[in-house]
TrEMBL record:
GO MF entries: acetyl-CoA C-acyltransferase activity; acetyl-CoA C-myristoyltransferase activity
Organism: Macaca fascicularis
Subunit structure, as described in the record: Heterotetramer of 2 alpha/HADHA and 2 beta/HADHB subunits; forms the mitochondrial trifunctional enzyme. Also purified as higher order heterooligomers including a 4 alpha/HADHA and 4 beta/HADHB heterooligomer which physiological significance remains unclear. The mitochondrial trifunctional enzyme interacts with MTLN. Interacts with RSAD2/viperin.
Name recorded for this polypeptide: Trifunctional enzyme subunit beta, mitochondrial
Family listed: Belongs to the thiolase-like superfamily. Thiolase family.
GO biological process: fatty acid beta-oxidation
């Protein structure tokens, strides 16, 4: 793997085929509706979509940091903290991208100088992070990754007995999103 050539900034780049999510074929569909409608139609919901947030930042030097920016905003909007989250599902575009998000989320300096926050976001506990695999191991089916992330969070909450899941991803051009899903009572 060390002999692979960089995909972008040659010859000094660090992103290679070995540490990037691979594009895969995929399709997805989700049925999203009010609980009352779902029950009236005989469906059993898996989870509630509690809150969501879209963000945008400067693509020049913050291109793939959407999860860092969106996570505290969606938590605040939902009245939750990182400690309330039982399952984290983040899109991993590249291993360096997820590591950059972790570094930014764990930095008071970054929070103050780039995000206008007084304190850092904090790291998601690794024992709750992408436990069933992420985009680096499962692949990145364009157009289906978001559904994969949400369903992984919902299914983990059901199987592991958790209440809240946080889904986050970066997107093209310096965008990002995060959402809170809550387990549907059994």
């Amino acid at each position: 793997m060390a002999k692979l050539k960089p995909a972008f900034i040659k010859p000094y780049g660090t992103v290679t085929a070995a540490n990037s999510s691979f594009l895969t074929d995929g399709a997805s569909a989700m049925l999203i509706m009010a609980e009352e409608k779902a029950l009236a139609m005989g469906y059993k919901p898996k989870a509630y979509l509690r809150d969501f947030m879209y963000v945008s930042q400067d693509p020049k030097d913050q291109l793939l940091l959407g999860p860092t920016y969106a996570t505290p905003k969606v938590l605040e909007k939902a009245g939750l903290t990182m400690n309330d989250i039982d399952a984290f599902e983040f899109h991993e575009a590249f291993s360096g991208q997820i590591l950059a998000n972790f570094k930014a989320m764990d930095s008071d300096w970054f929070a103050e100088n780039y995000m206008g926050r007084k304190t850092k976001v904090g790291l998601p506990p690794l024992e709750k992070f992408n436990n069933w695999g992420g985009s680096l191991s499962l692949g990145h089916p364009f157009g289906a990754t978001g559904c994969r992330l949400v369903m992984a969070a919902a299914n983990r909450l059901r199987k592991e007995g958790g209440q809240y899941g946080l889904v986050a991803a970066c997107a093209a051009g310096g965008q990002g999103h995060a959402m809170i899903v809550e387990a549907y009572p059994k």
